[in-house]
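Researcher: Go.
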Amino acid sequence: NDVKPYVDLIEKSGFHVLIPTFNGELLDQRIKHMENLRALDAAIIYKGKTSEQWVRMKALDIMKAPGFGRKKPIVAKAILAPIDGINNREPFDSQNFRFIEGDTTRSVESLKLFLLEFTT
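Model: Structure:
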């Protein structure tokens, strides 16, 4: 439910959102995750109630995506988080992740700008 405003905005902007599956067997979830990593053009990691460690693991998956059979580079990468949601940004900065932070209203506006940059 927390990501719904963001998913709606992204889809209204003409993009298709690949959402991970959290149901079924763990192996099936992992296979779907790797399929998504091969298919995506841009990646946005949402850090709601998850730990910073979980965000780091997802960022590492994005960095490893070429090893999963990607044919083209990932065009844009972002982390969507509440204000001060990420304490140590250095590992993400070195991998060219954009930070989109704030309450829902502020971060939706920042996400609009990110999508606009991505489409131009």
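Model: The beta strands are 42-46, 76-81, 98-101.
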